[in-house]
Design a protein that fits this description.
Length: 373
């Protein structure tokens, strides 16, 4: 008996949809979908390939495709011999084949790491977090204003200190706790990376991290406050969306919109809720040294000198498991609700506070299998 085989080849190309590469009237893709189906007396054969590299010349109508056998997904293992059919030529053009080779050489996705040197840009957070089972010890000092002069050794005689720990629960989810001498404040945060920047055909141009933190003022209250206030009035909250992109090995940018709520404010005219827009960046100067800048603008800031827009300039020095940060800012508190809502210094008046971070990372688990870019 003579067997008859009916074969149908369906090629679905979406050259006008992302991702695509356009060269004049030539469109190419590295994620073409080729579907093969054949009906035989023995059994039906079906296979799909979602990573075909194809190029289409719109002027001549010429079409060239390149596929690899190991990327085909068969419904049944019995028909692997049919993959030899895929080497049949659809048409050849030297120019189109060069475009296909270029498209096929681009990986589907490769994550971008080390957008910033650490989880802190200056006073505030970055999109970076500790890796899974990594513990980060952070010791922070911020001295008094530099304009105090030689009598107070340019602010060195007065300092606020924060000691905290950050821990990576997963590679995307982290948490932290800290204690500040400023108003004897305890603070904590939760941080989750929603999107990670990646290169390649299926890349993503930015990273997105959600940050929520809370702080508790533990100063002893006088008798009047004890009678009229309770624990809830000691608490402040902040929510931020951290969006960052690593433009190249030298430049990184971060946009930081957020919302701050304080259960207790100093005056009745002060808002309990404040909305902010933050912008920051990093310039890599050498292999271990980078310059950081961080600025926050409050949309509904009260018009008085008790509320200034925070501005910080600093340097990161990376040495193995340590990160040293030297900072100059018009704000004294380290924790989020503090430096965001209690900044009262002005750069033009010399109200500049010098400070530094020391960060030491301890790996409590196995090392990740990826390499940082």
């Amino acid at each position: 008996m003579k067997n008859r085989i009916k074969g149908h080849l369906f090629l679905w190309l979406l050259p006008l949809l992302f991702p695509f590469i356009s060269y004049a009237q030539i469109y190419s893709t590295g994620s073409g979908h080729i579907w093969f189906f054949s009906e035989t007396p023995l059994e039906n054969i079906e296979a799909h390939n979602y990573q075909a590299a194809c190029a289409l010349n719109m002027n001549s109508g010429e079409l060239v495709c390149k596929v690899t056998m190991d990327r085909f997904e068969f419904e049944k293992d019995l028909i692997l011999w049919m993959t030899a059919f895929l080497y049949a030529s659809v048409g050849f053009s030297q120019d189109l084949m060069e475009i296909i080779e270029e498209t096929d050489s681009v990986p589907a996705k490769q994550f971008v790491y080390s957008t910033f040197a650490s989880s802190r840009l200056a006073s505030g957070h970055t999109v970076e977090s500790p890796g899974k089972q990594e513990l980060v010890l952070i010791i922070s000092h911020r001295f008094w204003r530099l304009d105090d002069g030689i009598y107070d050794m340019f602010g060195l005689d007065n300092a606020t200190i924060r000691i905290g720990f950050d821990y990576g629960i997963t590679d995307r989810f982290s948490a932290g706790l800290g204690r500040n001498t400023y108003n004897k404040t305890y603070d904590g945060y939760l941080k989750y990376r929603i999107i990670q920047q990646a290169t390649g055909i299926k890349g993503m141009p930015f990273s997105l991290t959600y940050l929520t933190s809370a702080s508790v003022n533990s100063l002893r209250w006088d008798e009047e406050r004890k009678e009229n206030l309770d624990f809830a009035h000691r608490v402040s909250y902040i929510h931020q969306a951290l969006m960052a992109t690593k433009l190249n090995r030298i430049f990184s940018l971060q946009f930081m919109p957020g919302f701050v709520h304080k259960n207790l404010v100093e005056k009745k005219s002060d808002p309990n809720d404040m909305f902010l827009l933050g912008l920051g960046g990093k310039i890599r100067l050498t292999k271990i040294l980078s310059l950081n800048v961080e600025y926050y603008y409050f949309v509904n800031r009260p018009d008085n000198e008790r509320f200034m827009h925070p501005l910080a300039i600093g340097f990161d020095i990376v040495t193995g498991g340590h990160v040293f940060q030297l900072l100059f800012s018009n704000s004294q508190p380290w924790f989020e609700s503090g430096f965001l809502t209690e900044t009262n210094g002005q750069w033009r008046n010399g109200d500049i506070y010098f400070g530094f971070h020391i960060q030491r990372t301890f790996s409590l688990g196995s090392k990740p299998d990826w390499q940082k870019l």
